[in-house]
Amino acid sequence: MGERFHFVCHECTEEGVYEDRDEALDVKNDHVAATEHRVSMENISERPA
Ligand SMILES: [Zn+2]
Questions:
Q1: What is the Cα–Cα distance from 49 to 14, expressed in whole angstroms?
Q2: Origin, by domain of life (predicted)?
């Protein structure tokens, strides 16, 4: 529960936060396929302190 993935493009302003890993990957892969931009994605899920 509570998983969140932050997708961000390093070459334009495209970014987003998704709760579903597969959805985030789809967006990431679509952006790469469409633009050949370099993007990264990280898990920003809240973790216990
Ligand atoms: Zn981009």
A1: 30
A2: Archaea
